[in-house]
């Protein structure tokens, strides 16, 4: 029978958790210098987590960590970790731990439960909606540009229209992924853009591109260099709707990879929002690996 005991001392669990995180991030292709900031981001919230030891007939078989916190005015739960040792896997402990975490968070008022997956979880979280994926590809040599597609710096005159369009697209991605309501997403969009590019085109370590084909504008790109040591983050590589289906999506990624190398970085990262299967398939075909996947479930489960 699977049982759960809240730990008073999380030291042993945290060491094991960080070891597993480091191994998973490294396996995804992140360099050692980039792994450490990722771990620091996780450590920042660990102190608020409640960690339970999973036992079976008095034997520890794994851990589950949970937390409930305010998220834009509503309580949301999170499964920070759910791990069953390989020796005890596939005996129902994983499902029991998931159900325990859902109940624990629901009892404390959470109406949504999130989880970040860094390793394959089989069918355990199939009922959870994919909210987004962090994808990454190492770029070791300049990619060959696609015929007829060029990238140039965005002009100051083009920036206001681009910014307005990006905000609208960002809101749409958040709402489609089921993360926030339209009103909450709009507020988040305003906050995030003000924080990320406070100086507009002049914001340091950012590249803003306009993609063209046959002299016609077909899309735009926005990249942040040094997002992690050696890694550029692509906030946006966008192909206008009337030009989609012509192979320009891959051309935009090539432009992003070229800008990554030009800035001195060796890896390019993107977040793909849930519900955007076209982009997910494109990134997969281009060799971008999943570093993390975020999923969520409405609580209580019967109301999901």
TrEMBL record:
InterPro entries the record matches: Acyl_CoA_acyltransferase (IPR016181), GNAT_dom (IPR000182)
Q: Which domain of life is it from?
A: Bacteria
Q: Name one GO molecular function term.
A: acyltransferase activity, transferring groups other than amino-acyl groups
Q: Which Gene3D superfamilies match?
A: 3.40.630.30
**SUPFAM superfamilies in the record:** Acyl-CoA N-acyltransferases (Nat) (SSF55729)
Q: Which PROSITE patterns match?
A: GNAT
Q: Which CDD domains match?
A: NAT_SF
Q: Which residues are in the N-acetyltransferase domain? A: 149-304
Q: What is this protein called?
A: N-acetyltransferase domain-containing protein
């Amino acid at each position: 029978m699977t049982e759960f005991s809240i730990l008073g001392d999380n030291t042993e669990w945290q060491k094991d958790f960080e070891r597993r995180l480091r191994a998973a991030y490294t396996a995804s292709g992140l360099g050692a210098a980039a792994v450490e900031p990722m771990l620091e981001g996780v450590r920042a919230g660990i102190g608020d987590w409640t960690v339970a030891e999973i036992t079976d007939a008095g034997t520890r078989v794994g851990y589950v960590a949970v937390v409930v916190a305010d998220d834009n005015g509503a309580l949301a739960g999170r499964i920070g970790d759910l791990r069953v040792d390989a020796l005890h896997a596939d005996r129902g402990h994983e499902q029991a731990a998931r159900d325990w975490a859902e109940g624990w968070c629901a009892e404390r008022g959470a109406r949504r439960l999130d989880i970040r997956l860094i390793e394959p979880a089989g069918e355990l979280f199939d009922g959870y909606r994919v909210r987004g994926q962090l994808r990454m590809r190492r770029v070791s040599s300049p990619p060959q540009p696609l015929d007829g597609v060029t990238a140039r710096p965005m002009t100051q005159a083009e920036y206001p229209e681009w910014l307005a369009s990006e905000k609208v697209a960002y809101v749409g991605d958040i709402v489609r992924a089921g993360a926030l309501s339209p009103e909450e997403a709009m507020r988040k969009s305003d906050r995030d853009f003000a924080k990320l590019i406070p100086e507009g085109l002049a914001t340091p370590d950012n590249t803003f591109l306009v993609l063209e084909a046959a002299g016609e504008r077909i899309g735009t790109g926005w990249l942040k260099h040094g997002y992690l040591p050696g890694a550029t983050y692509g906030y946006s590589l966008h192909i206008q709707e009337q030009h989609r289906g012509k192979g320009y999506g891959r051309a935009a990624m090539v432009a992003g990879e070229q800008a990554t190398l030009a800035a001195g970085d060796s890896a390019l990262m993107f977040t793909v929002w849930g519900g955007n299967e076209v982009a997910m398939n494109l990134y997969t075909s281009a060799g971008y690996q999943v570093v993390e996947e975020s999923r969520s479930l409405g609580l209580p489960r019967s109301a999901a």
